[in-house]
């Protein structure tokens, strides 16, 4: 057997995190390789955040036209042309793989294709060839969680949903998280009958329950059906485009397409991590404060496949990559990620967003909590977009005037939440934020009324 090809660094995964690490280390003159088992570019650019927002923007545009009710535009009878929308999405995703790989090569990075499997502490088998490296970074992201009911394999992933050139007449989403809610809002506005099946008593468990309740009621008005506290017993495949979902309580749901929205897990199960002595579990690779494997000092993990307490979001992965690039070849790793306050949003229409503590968490932290909450649907900033639901909840500690959490629902929520995140990261008090001059009129200016 021939000797393994040696690199200073091999990065497994070509998304934003893996690409950042590879590029930064290549700039120092190290010999770097990067590998992916799929086309180069990663989930966010090819199958996630970016193409999803193309669909979300179409839904938002249509929603605003329809909500105008003849007051903002003369004709509110617009519709989404799904085939053209899909073609437009392709203008964003199609160039990614070739452009990404070319960019790596131009930076002197060797590009490899195939599933990377550990066959030693620092040795990999990739497409039948052997490679070894002084450092290896695992940046493989996530994959849909495996479901165990009969015929679960007939579910399509969010990847496949984004590649549908024709819109199914009736779509069922399994799970009530980000993926299901975002796509459900687009599909319902585009003309599909939509059903969301959720095992818990509410959807969007990571957001403020009061605002979620408002959003759920609004979603129901769009025609989205919610089946809560439900468990799937199995799916009958009745034809190429016909499914019957059987629920534990005896109900059945007919659908032309069933989408997996029941969560994602680290994409590490085919890498033979045990062979390299890399500790891991269902939540990812066990890492220390510097994102180095706790059991194999040559290996680091970033983003969705690293076991940390952070949400699995692109900004978190990017921060991981920045830190790992500094630690990899230092005499000893000393940098740790500074996540600050990580905001998150679900791009329904309108969007829902959060940062910091929930009300329940804040009540456990603050002895004197001020819960400032309200309905914004009649505020001028919201009414100007056409009538929709909107609300806020801001959590402030009365003793220190510190902002402990912020939760928003409504137009611009996904943008306004970033200002709360910045204020909280830099320990601005509610009074200091309130005294800041914002552009008027703007959604950001509404912060002063919220606090």
From TrEMBL:
<dbReference type="InterPro" id="IPR001100">
    <property type="entry name" value="Pyr_nuc-diS_OxRdtase"/>
</dbReference>
<keyword id="KW-0560">Oxidoreductase</keyword>
<feature type="binding site">
    <location>
        <position position="263"/>
    </location>
    <ligand>
        <name>NAD(+)</name>
    </ligand>
</feature>
<feature type="binding site">
    <location>
        <begin position="175"/>
        <end position="182"/>
    </location>
    <ligand>
        <name>NAD(+)</name>
    </ligand>
</feature>
<feature type="binding site">
    <location>
        <position position="198"/>
    </location>
    <ligand>
        <name>NAD(+)</name>
    </ligand>
</feature>
<feature type="domain" description="FAD/NAD(P)-binding">
    <location>
        <begin position="7"/>
        <end position="320"/>
    </location>
</feature>
<dbReference type="InterPro" id="IPR023753">
    <property type="entry name" value="FAD/NAD-binding_dom"/>
</dbReference>
<keyword id="KW-0285">Flavoprotein</keyword>
<dbReference type="Pfam" id="PF07992">
    <property type="entry name" value="Pyr_redox_2"/>
</dbReference>
<keyword id="KW-0547">Nucleotide-binding</keyword>
<keyword id="KW-0520">NAD</keyword>
<keyword id="KW-0274">FAD</keyword>
<dbReference type="GO" id="GO:0000166">
    <property type="term" value="F:nucleotide binding"/>
</dbReference>
<comment type="similarity">
    <text>Belongs to the class-I pyridine nucleotide-disulfide oxidoreductase family.</text>
</comment>
<feature type="domain" description="Pyridine nucleotide-disulphide oxidoreductase dimerisation">
    <location>
        <begin position="342"/>
        <end position="450"/>
    </location>
</feature>
<feature type="binding site">
    <location>
        <position position="53"/>
    </location>
    <ligand>
        <name>FAD</name>
    </ligand>
</feature>
<feature type="disulfide bond" description="Redox-active">
    <location>
        <begin position="44"/>
        <end position="49"/>
    </location>
</feature>
<dbReference type="InterPro" id="IPR004099">
    <property type="entry name" value="Pyr_nucl-diS_OxRdtase_dimer"/>
</dbReference>
<dbReference type="InterPro" id="IPR036188">
    <property type="entry name" value="FAD/NAD-bd_sf"/>
</dbReference>
<feature type="binding site">
    <location>
        <position position="304"/>
    </location>
    <ligand>
        <name>FAD</name>
    </ligand>
</feature>
<protein>
    <submittedName>
        <fullName>Glutathione amide reductase</fullName>
        <ecNumber>1.8.1.16</ecNumber>
    </submittedName>
</protein>
<dbReference type="GO" id="GO:0016491">
    <property type="term" value="F:oxidoreductase activity"/>
</dbReference>
<dbReference type="Pfam" id="PF02852">
    <property type="entry name" value="Pyr_redox_dim"/>
</dbReference>
<dbReference type="InterPro" id="IPR016156">
    <property type="entry name" value="FAD/NAD-linked_Rdtase_dimer_sf"/>
</dbReference>
